[in-house]
Amino acid sequence: MENSFEKSGINIELIKGLEKQGITTPTEIQSIIVNPFMEGKDIVGMSYTGSGKTLAYLLPLFMKVDTSLRSTQAIVLTPTHELAVQVYKQAELLAKNSEVDVKTALIIGGANIQRQIDKLKEKPQIVIGSAGRIHDLIKKRKIQAHTVKTIVIDEADRMIDDLNISSVEAVVKTTLKDRQIVMLSASITDKASKKAISLMKKPVFLNASKEEKLPENIEHIYITAEQREKIIVIRKLVHGENIKKGIVFINNNENIEVIVEKLNYHGIKTVGIYGKANKYERRDAIEDMREGRANILVSSDLSARGLDIAGVTHVINIDIPEEPVYYLHRAGRTGRAGEKGKCISIVTEFEKKWIRKYERTLGIKFSHKEMSYGKLVDVKEVKKSNKGNKFFNSKKTVKVNNKTENKNDEKGFFQKKAEKALKKQKN
Fold first, then answer.
1. Which of 56, 151, 84 is nearest to 306 (CA)?
2. Is the dihedral of CA 204, 205, 208, 211 positive or negative?
3. Radius of gyration of the chain, Cα coordinates, nearest whole angstrom
4. Which end of the chain is more exposed for a tag (fewer CB within 10 A), N or C?
5. CA distance linking residue 88 with residue 78, whole number of Å
6. By residue range, what is the domain housing residue 235?
7. Residue 426 lies in a domain
8. Residues 245, 328 share a domain
């Protein structure tokens, strides 16, 4: 086979392990990263969302680990707990399927630190998790940083931004100078590139994103609405499109809980992942989505990094992201494994400028649609069918669950919330 894992340099045990997962052909990033990785070079790799970046670094990392040594040889840093868990599960699955004796440990903040210390006593060769907690355990001498040969920084554009760079640098500085640093992301800004270079020794830049675009099986749609009506539009979409698995994206992390409460109040099974939720709440939210107990997940860009939920048919942007790369990340949550998907952005007249920006920079075409009689239809078709109908009902009402409601129906939600708060005070 022309494009094979064997040709890329992956050993036979790992190839057999991948076959058990139904993976037989490497993606571009998985093919081009192996040689420089095995040569110990520092790497900055870019590859589009959903291109298998996790396996791209785990495969050569497994080959570099000396299984005869019971010491920490590699650290994988991720920006979110969810991504750390996914990487850990993939590493465990790879070890099991390939029967390679590589031990891993999941080390993230918010979890029981004593249990993590107990896990480290088993001398795992790969430690996966958040920079803050890993650095804390290095300082406590529970992780021996001087034995670390490789540091992988996943979703590097977020890991080396102003919010996270100090924690990453703190971990890097605890290791010896001859260690290898590998950064992978869907995009790297010029600012991030300069920070990356400052941490590395003559890095190799790998770009597997040059010709990649969002899959053609994703339909890009925008709906215009006033800011206060966006929740009503989401409710109409959920019912009209019969959404079983969808993700709603929001820009401000602090608003997630309110959106979740509103949608649940109106009978839509909704969960959220947000900053103040603890590890177990976040895990339960994702499991509820995966198992079908919830239909909608509300998230911010940071919370959704690396998030992979099979069967997501719709991505809905209640807030439009101001950077094309974030639109790319969001849209990439649907249309996976060749399935069709829809990415729907609900925008105000002012926000329509971002739609034009994405069309130019991402080379995609948006269709302008609206919900009409429970169906998502092209705006031009609606105007055409209504043309000349002087009796057309222009009242701003929506039909959800066979109930007609006006645009002020959020009043009931806030009234119930106030009554709840008052009851708490009395108790």
1. 84
2. negative
3. 24
4. C
5. 11
6. 218-421
7. no
8. yes
DSSP line for 159-179: HTSTTTHHHHHHHHHTS-TT-
* Chain position carrying tokens 């571009």: 28
Using the structure block, give the residue that is written with the tokens 């037989």: 24
Question: Cβ contacts of residue 410 below 8 Å, gap of 6+?
Answer: 228, 231, 262
Into how many domains does the chain fold?
2
Give residue-wise pLDDT tens across range 184-226.
987 777 777 788 888 898 899 998 865 445 678 899 999 999 9
> Contact 271/291 with Cβ under 8 angstroms?
no
- Least Cα distance to 75 among 198, 213, 179 occurs for 179
Contact 24, 18 (CB under 8 A): yes
Q: How many residues are there in the chain?
A: 427
d(CA 59, CA 95): 10
Average pLDDT score over the chain:
85
Q: How far apart are the first and last CA of the chain?
A: 71
Q: What is the DSSP letter of 386?
A: H
User: What is the DSSP pairing of strand 341-347 with strand 314-317?
Assistant: parallel
The Cα 394–Cα 384 span in angstroms is 15
CB 126 within 8 Å of CB 102: yes
pLDDT confidence bin for 171, thresholds 50/70/90:
very high
Q: Collapse the DSSP code of 211 into the 3-class scheme (helix H, G, I; strand E, B; otherwise coil) and give the result.
A: coil
Domain contains 235? yes
Q: Which amino acid is at 213?
A: K
pLDDT band at 17 (very low <50, low <70, confident <90, very high): very high
What average pLDDT does this structure show over 332-346?
88
